[in-house]
Amino acid sequence: MFNKDVVAPGKMRRKIVNPRIILLDCPLEYKKGENQTNAELLREEDWSLLLKLEEEYIEELCMQILKFKPDLVVTEKGLSDLACHYLSKHGVSAIRRLRKTDNNRIAKACGAVIVNRPDELQESDVGTGAGLFEVKKIGDEYFAFIVDCKEPKACTVLLRGASKDLLNEVERNLQDAMSVARNIIKNPKLVPGGGATEMTVSAALKQKSSSIEGIEKWPYEAAAIAFESIPRTLAQNCGVNVIRTMTALQGKHANGENAWIGIDGNTGVIADMKERKIWDAYNVKAQTFKTAIEAACMLLRIDDIVSGIKKKQAPGAGPSKPKIDTEGDADGEQILPD
């Protein structure tokens, strides 16, 4: 589906069954000069000759297309009135100035090949996989549909909403859902949601820190506390008592047991995520952990902050003069030992 109508609605068909589709990436109009072009005509007959050459050029382009007997011609560039006349005269519908992305999607849907020059057209370039071409009016605009394709490699999801804000929200939710499905197909691994994975990792880090002595145990304890922020946030969003819920959840995950226990985001109760069928994608969860730890390491590597903000001067004060060191200043400096 794309937001376009045929060039001449009164002369061209808006509904074609089993259409033969030709996709072009070139203009069907007389070639114009790249820069400002001036033509000086000395005789009146020269003007008629110029118009005749233009008509013959457009007619030749259209005849190269029409010999393949198409039902629909789609081009990404312009389409002159003369070309529109020749195409409509032979019962061919035409669509012009289509976006490159939409043209690629049509090619994947109907099996056509996008051609750069009409004289290079072949029978194999004609798309015959579409079952129906139809133009429909939705609201105040016209939309063209190419449906019932035999082996489509592209599709369109049409979203409709009462307002623009609602439509943007639905589009964002659909994008998230499709991304989740893609992640599961690429890496079919799941982990329990509801903060169960974070609490399991936190309990494992606490258990590891108890076996380490000295300051080396502090990073383990700090990371364990940080992982608990996810279930704590879930509990806050549910409106339950955060301290009691976290204490009960920590008791369930003590000694690395009950790895499936988490927080139900709808009710706020502690439940088995396997029974509630609450899951997270493994690769998303792993990437989240890696990013969080890398960000913490980057902050810890910062030993000083250089500020580029100038100090504010008193109102009315002129620009400060550069200070020149004198011999007395040099003698007064302390020499640090090697």
Automatic annotation (TrEMBL):
Glycosyltransferase as UniProt keyword: no
Q: Where, subcellularly, is it found?
A: Cytoplasm
User: What's the protein here called?
Assistant: T-complex protein 1 subunit gamma
From the UniProt entry, list the residue stretches annotated as the region Disordered: 311-338
- Keyword terms: ATP-binding, Chaperone, Cytoplasm, Nucleotide-binding
Q: Where are the transmembrane segments?
A: none
Q: What family, per the record? A: Belongs to the TCP-1 chaperonin family.
